[in-house]
Amino acid sequence: MTRDIYRLMLPVVSLAVLLAATFWLQPRAMSYFGLNLLFNLAVPIALATIAQMMIIMVNDIDLSLGAFVSLVACVAATFLTDAPLTGMLILLALVLAYAALGAVIHALDLPAIVVTLGMSFVWGGLALTILPSPGGTSPDWLRMLMTLKPPSVPMAVAASILIAVVTHLLIVRSGIGTVLRGVGGNARSVQRAGWSVLRLKALAYGLAGLFGVLAGMALVGLTTSADANIALRYTLLSIAGVILGGGEFTGGRVSPAGAVIGALTLTLAASFLNFLRLSPDWQIGAQGAVLILVLAARLLFTRRSARA
Amino acid sequence: MITRTLLLSAAGVAALAGTALAETSDKRIALSNNYAGNSWRQAMLQTFQEVADKAVADGIVAAADPYTTSENQATEQAAQIQNMILQGYDAIILNAASPTALNGAVEEACNAGVIVVSFDGIVTAPCAWRIAVDFRAMGREQVDYLAERLPDGGNLLEIRGLAGVFVDDEIHAGIHEGVEAHSQFTIAGTVNGDWAQEVAQRAVAGILPSLPEIVGVVTQGGDGYGAAEAFRAAGRDTPLIILGNRQDEMAWWAEQRDANGYETMSLSIAPGVASLAFWVAQQILDGQEVPKDLTVPFLRVTQDTLDEALAATPEGSVANTVYSLEDAQAVIAEAQ
């Protein structure tokens, strides 16, 4: 339990520091309206980060997530609006495809990094087929959901808290979540305990597919329409978000709340650099520097707690 | 005494600037740009900077700041636009990564009372202004020109841009309309040159062995020189290649003209269109009635203007013009 708190402390502190710096630089951000503008585009990133976390949880990595979210966005902006039932079925099929992918990767003992890299071209090609040129419209209910103005707490903040709580209950508190993390920690003993690792991996990938679908839908709700390349940067952002949020690449050591906070931190870091008026040539470098800084701090923390 | 001179000169400036300019002296304009990685965009940013600095120095606007996203991604640019709303800009001029994916952010800006003027890469959000390029016409005119020069027709090679980008779709559609109108031409092959010389050269070199005799190459700009190099390397006759105003293309053209009387034409959009967008935004802030859809004129280089255009274009850049307030007013008047 204390380790979990340690794991979560650093992401929380980094977000708080960055938020304070942003408010100091741009006081207008310190309002209902401002917070929403700062964070609403972080909601799909947070969902994509949770999707990536499901894969990292079972010791794999997903390089196709950005292309997958783009594909979902294209489906949501076309089929889901024009023929809701077909749209729903396609999205369901995509989630099942993800689960099947997990099963295949496990059954044939394939490296996930290679399979998902290959799949990224499949998703990208499908997205281009559905939407050869940018367009489509978001379903009205999705647009309404993403532009809700709940009293006192901006939609972006409320949604982030909701995502964190739901996934925390699912992954950290529930029995099946513990077993799933066990697959990443020690697959052999999970198998000896009588679980089918094949099914568990399919479940983990299926959950990733589900959150990938949610990410794509949230994105379309915000942008109002789609584009086959719309979410390509989510692949790397989601990996960075998981790690920034206290997750590790191996051992099933992940934190859903941390992943959400990691996604918010990454979004905020970009805005912060924008407010600083840093030249774009330096921005990618500076974002990298923020990442390295947080990871270095984490190393110091874990070393100290190991010694204690 | 000093105060008095200052007052006098201030009055003088105000009188010179006229009423149209005084209205916007406290307004701030931001440029949201999605990409800076080619010669066209570099020239665009430079022209904007020149015009913006002068406008700020003259007191026409309070600030005009350019921002470029680092990864050329729509989601990143949407965040950038939302940041600009927070920074309190009065107008955003926008070269968009996607015509549709930024609409959510653009609507947020409009709702916050920010004027949004998109140009080159336009957005479809109804509340934004669009300074569009008629890319279809650009494709059509290439084939029209070829029909004039090669009345017998023949096989064409089409070099397209980056797949999935709407500029590419539009020029491509225009070229097809042109080929339909001039049925003596057939498109024998299509490659994606990504608007870059090296990519175009590789792609053309790859497809050439499988092609019959090619009489003309229709392009999208930034790919003409690469195509010419690929034809030369394959030992084939140089066809009539339509060029896109890049310096290396025009230099190659001049060289060929001097050597063997090569004739072609070159057309593209001047990167200075950013300065046109700046003045249009200034006019809207000034309270002028401006239609939502405006059209940018093409910049055309012909056999007669080649030497002049080549001399004025720095190496690695693209032929350019800087638009003035009067040019913007003319474009607005034409659309009304």
TrEMBL record, chain A:
One matching Pfam family: BPD_transp_2
Location(s), subcellular: Cell membrane
Membrane topology qualifier: Multi-pass membrane protein
Family annotation (InterPro entries): ABC_transp_permease (IPR001851)
CDD domains in UniProt: TM_PBP1_transp_AraH_like
Transmembrane segment boundaries: 5-25, 37-56, 63-81, 87-105, 112-132, 152-172, 202-224, 230-250, 257-276, 282-301
GO cellular component, as recorded: plasma membrane
GO molecular function: transmembrane transporter activity
Name of protein: Monosaccharide ABC transporter membrane protein, CUT2 family
Native species: Paracoccus tibetensis
TrEMBL record, chain B:
Record localization: Cell envelope
Keywords of the record: Signal
CDD domains found in the cross-reference section: PBP1_ABC_sugar_binding-like (cd19997)
Pfam families named in the record: Peripla_BP_4 (PF13407)
SUPFAM superfamilies given in the database record: Periplasmic binding protein-like I
InterPro entries: Peripla_BP_I (IPR028082), SBP_2_dom (IPR025997)
GO cellular component, as recorded: cell envelope
Entry's Gene Ontology molecular function annotations: carbohydrate binding
Domain named Periplasmic binding protein: residues: 29-289
Signal peptide extent: 1-22
Family of the protein in this entry: Belongs to the bacterial solute-binding protein 2 family.
Protein name listed in UniProt: Monosaccharide ABC transporter substrate-binding protein, CUT2 family
